[in-house]
Each structure stands twice: as structure tokens, then as C-alpha cells.
Amino acid sequence: MHAWPASEVPALPGKGRDLRIHDTATGGPVTLDPGPVARIYVCGITPYDATHMGHAATYNAFDLVQRVWLDTKRQVHYVQNVTDVDDPLLERANRDGQDWTELAERETSLFREDMTALRMLPPQHYIGAVEAIPGIVPLVERLRDAGAAYELDGDVYFSVESDPHFGGVSHLDAEAMRLLSAERGGDPERPGKKNPLDPMLWMAAREGEPRWDGRSLGPGRPGWHIECVAIALDHLGMGFDVQGGGSDLAFPHHEMGASHAHALTGEHPYAKAYVHAGMVALHGEKMSKSKGNLVFVSALRRQGVDPAAIRLTLLAHHYRSDWEWTDAVLDEAVERLARWRAAVSRPDGPPADALVEEVRAALADDLDAPAALRAVDRWAALQERGGGTDEGAPGVVSRTVDALLGVAL
Fold first, then answer.
1. Alpha carbons 140 and 145: distance in angstroms, whole number
2. Rounded to whole angstroms, what are the CA distances from 76 to 73, 318, 338, 376?
3. What is the pLDDT of residue 289?
């Protein structure tokens, strides 16, 4: 599966700072010190109802991670998946009378267009769950043969008790896990499971549903968590730098994925840091497909909203915060974009070297994009008052905003 075209990232003078970021697993900040190649895996969309603002906020956060690393003169090895077969996708296709493969391809294509418009840097490997199935089946067989998985009426479940580190990502108690499991795709009430929290690795073929050759597992399709693990281990290996996604993925998805990897490899940790973006609300409730309270990037683009203004709306909120989309926050971003573009269009301005370092420092401190925006606001305000005669300053500011914030002025 192909990703989307990359926008050019301008090179800035000097060198950026190492990223200090909040790690869900430790509950506090960690300073990441990757080698020459930083490795990141971000969980992708289930391709229906793409791309809503919750998606955009999540991928904006991890785009900033990439930009900070690139500014430290590292290479970035970024992997993202597409969950292009899953219960919610099949349910939506059935509801709307569509072929599920056509729905997945259409929404994935729309997602690519939106990511391109928002100037999100693409992954080096963009992998669909379906194309990963030949690599998933052997992993499920290995887990079963090692005693870390078991069969139940033809389905194969992972035993969470096989991983001594289980619970180390989300740090939730058993009851909270059970409730979230039921809410987020698990089946804790199914009779016969060894532990209510055990997640499915391989679902035996159901009537009227897609199926693939599972070798000794029989025909069926993979569970949600093992898909990402297979892709991440194949392209990044154990101990990669950042596992990323929305905060609703900490449990069960990232917790279960880590346990699958620990049981498969005997190594720990799966990822050095687990980084989670906050949720975006509309009308007082988290944006969700089930509630239908979604604001779509593509719809805003069709209305003539500049994608740079959409991106500035996202950047105005700290990536870990939960916030609400309103017309007012978009209007503020449109006004900010106009001020910045007017400021950099002048032939000279206040010196910008300090601004570059302010933006670098803000982003290195747990991706504090709102602080970075305020720094640019201050420079633009000085520019409006005629605060300098540095002919190169507007270009430096424009390149800084482009390279580190992904906004083209």
C-alpha cells in the first residue's frame, strides 16, 4: 500500500534539541535519545469516516515528533498501518450496502488526500492489515505453540497471563480494563476464556465475512492487536522509540500489542515510550463515528478553508489535551495565519535567530506547540510595529514555521 507524497522540510541553521515527551507507561516525562535513525510506529485509521478532526489531531502530534527529530539531523523510520479489515468497517459496509473493500479503499484514498493537504510527513512504510496477513499467521501459530495462546471454538485467544509485564502500559486495574475491553472491541463476557481480558488473535471464518488461509489455524482473519505487532516487528523490531496513537488506544490496543510482542520475543520493552494524543470533542462530546458528531478535514477543504488554518487550529492545542472544536477556534487560526503571512511578506523585520531557538525549545518540551505559536505571534507583532531591519528575518521565520510546525507561509 502506498502512502502520500512528502512535502519538502527546509533545513534550519544549527541543530535541534532532543525531545522530552510524556510516556504513558512511566506516567511522566522521558528524554528520547534515538540513534542515528529514530523509529516510530503510529496506529492508523480504520478506513471509514475519514478524516475527522480527531484523526487529524493525532497525526499532527506525531508529525511534530518527526519534525523535531529531523531537526536534530537524524533520519526517521516511520511506520503506520491501515486497519482495512475489522468489525466496524464490515458493519459500516453492511449498513450502507457497500462492498467493504471499496469502502476501505475510498476512505484510505481520502485520508491520503487530507494528509497531503495538511502537509503531514508520510510514513516510509504504510501497511494495510490485509497485506500483512501472511506475516500475521505465523506469529499466531508461534504464540499458540508456545502456550501463550489457546483455541476456543475455533478462535484463537492470547493469554494475557503469559506476559509478566501485562498492565505496564496503561496501569489500569482489572475492573477498569474489563469495562474498556467491552467498550473497545473486546469480548470479556464470552464463556470459556481463561481470562476475561484475553484478546482474540485469530477469528475463525464466519458466514458472509471475509476470510484468509490461516494454515494450521484454519480459515479466518486476524484480531486487531496482532496486526500492528506483526507490522511493527517486521519493519522496526523490538525496542523502537515511540509507539503512538490517540489516548483511547492505551488500553486495550497498545497494552495488548506490547504483551503480544513480549511473548513472541522474550524481550522488553516493545517500545521505549508510549505517547498518546488527547481527544477532540464537538458539542460537548468526544468526536466519534458511533455518535456521528464529526468534523471532516475534506468537508472544510471543500468549503474553502485553507489547510494551513486547519493545521494551526490543531497546533493551538497541546497534543495531550482534550479540547473542543468550535467555529471560534478555527476563526482564530484563520486570523493568525493571515497575520503571519502578512508579517513574512515584508522585505525585512526583527531578527529571528532567537525565535528559531524558542520554537525548538517549545517543541522539545513535550511538543508544546501552543508555546511555539505564541513565540511566532510575538515576532509578528514586532514586525507589525516595524521592529527591525533584518532583510533575512522573514525568510528565516517562514522556513522555521514550515520545518518545525508544518505550516507553509
1. 9
2. 10, 23, 32, 26
3. 65
The three grid cell numbers given for residue 307, joined into one nine-digit string: 489547510
Q: What is the 3-state secondary structure (H, E, C) of 229-241?
A: HHHHHHHCCCCEE
Nearest-angstrom CA–CA distance, 258 and 274: 10
Annotate 204-242 with b (16+ C-beta within 10 A) or e (fewer).
beeeeeeebebeebeebbbbbbbbbbbbbbebbebebbb
Q: What's the pTM value of the predicted model, to 2 decimals? A: 0.96
Ordered domains of the chain (ranges, CATH): 20-297 (3.40.50.620), 306-405 (1.20.120.640)
CB-facing half-sphere around the CA of 94: CA atoms within 13 A? 9
Could you state, in chain order, the average pLDDT of each consecutive group of 10 residues for the chain (409 residues)?
Answer: 96 96 98 96 94 96 98 98 94 92 96 98 98 98 98 98 98 97 96 98 96 98 98 98 98 98 98 97 75 88 98 98 96 98 94 96 98 98 87 96 98
Largest CA distance in the chain: 76
8 CB burial (10 A radius; 0-12, 13-18, 19+): exposed
